[in-house]
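Data deposition worksheet. Section B asks for the primary sequence of the deposited chain exactly as it was used as input, without tags or linkers unless they were present during the calculation. Section C holds the resulting structure in token form. Section D is free text for depositor observations; keep each observation to a single sentence. Incomplete worksheets are returned to the depositor.
Section A, Depositor: J.P.
Section B:
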Amino acid sequence: MFRNRIAQVVAPAFVSVVALAAVSAVLLASTPAMAQSADAVKADFARAVYLNNATQVHNEQPQALLRAVVVLRVRLGADDQWQAEVFRDNPDQPEMTRVALESVSRLPSPVGLSAQARRQLREQGVIEAWLFQNDGRFALKTLAKPQRGA
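Section C:
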């Protein structure tokens, strides 16, 4: 009887995780193929970060006084791996810089990129800002809602 109760609790959660992973894989595989303009490439990159770091991302208005802002330039290397360079960090919050860099390192190699988008990502890359809340979750400036007033 106890095992049945555990199965009733665990099974729906497992199905939800598997479904979320499947949807994420489909979106990640299909989204970059649409990217042509610099803004579209940047938005596709931001969506990929959100999909691969779902537990660390928030979809709320960023608070008025952010815990930290980290700005990275992210390029696609010759081996199709993402490479991040810190443009701006908060010396008092080095763990937030680490979280931003790790969120990029988790990204899989992009698929379905146009030649133009691939060239843009290799040459210029994208510059993106990670906006951290007090609880450590982040939003990327490209997809973030307007920041709350003070």
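Section D:
Strands lie at 68-76, 82-88, 126-132, 138-140.
The first strand starts at residue 68 and ends at 76.
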